[in-house]
Amino acid sequence: MPGSASVRTISRLRPGFGLRGPRTPRQVLPAEDLDVLALPVGDDGVVAGVDVQERPAVLGLHHPVPYDVVLVGGLWTAQVLALRAAGTGARVAVETGRPQVWTNLARAAGGDQQCMTLHDVGRVPPMGATAVSPVVVIRDCGMKPPRGRVSSGPWQSVLTLLPYLSPAAPRLLRGASLAGIQQVSPEEAQQVSRILSLSREETEALSTLADGVTLWCAGRDRRFVLTRPTDAELGLLGAARRLD
Fold first, then answer.
1. Is the separation of the CB atoms in 162 and 172 below 8 Å?
2. 137 pairs with which residues across the strands?
3. Which CA distances in Å does 112 have to 107, 116, 229?
């Protein structure tokens, strides 16, 4: 690959997949010298897994503007993302009507510190998110999540988990900055395709996705991502699964 093409590829930022960093003068390196680099190149955020080319897929969840994420998928994936978000230093607030499925995760994530807290539906307090102390709110409120007091804001993103499509899904997906879709029925795949303007191939793939695979959509960017659990995540959450 020519050096100029390499620079263009590295400098191109995908909306939703990482936080835009400060602009600096471009540095040009001949293609034949790329092997001497030992530093990883990527965006800031949460590593959701790897794409079809085995490259790390990073979800940028921390932004100075409101940022909403919708995941139509399983609890397992939402919990992995919550655990990894906490691992980046973010405070994670989980709004849920089933605290029993989150309790062990919250204890394991925080240790002696409360980096992951659980709240009843509609009872998430103001979190005071800042650039140095970002917040991720996970809304695990079932098929029809109520309009709660919590909302996205500067340095506070909100991830809404939907186990399947529901009457609330079209509104949430259209308003989301980032949408993740796991295996759904062919009928649901057609509905998602109309909302997110998916290609025919992407639409057909949605009904056959393996456990742990998510199609992440941000603007016109689409990536199939496989989430592989670490040993610690495997021991805590078990193997990847679409159904709870």
1. yes
2. 93, 158
3. 8, 11, 23
- Pair 160, 68: CB distance under 8 Å: yes
> Average pLDDT in the 157-170 region?
94
Residue 211 makes CB contacts below 8 A (sequence gap 6+) with 74, 76, 183, 239, 240, 241, 242
Structure confidence at residue 244 as a pLDDT band (50, 70, 90): confident
Residue corresponding to tokens 């092997």: 35
Residue 119 CB partners (closer than 8 Å, separation 6+) = 93, 94, 95, 96, 125
List the Cα angle 87/90/92 in 5-degree steps: 95
Query: Span 100-106, mean pLDDT?
Result: 96
Question: Any residues with CB less than 8 A from the CB of 195 and at least 6 apart, and which?
Answer: 169, 170, 173, 174
Q: Give dist(CA 244, CA 241) in Å, integer.
A: 7
Three-state SS at 102: coil
Residue 10 predicted with pLDDT over 50: no
Burial class (CB in 10 A: 0-12, 13-18, 19+), 59: buried
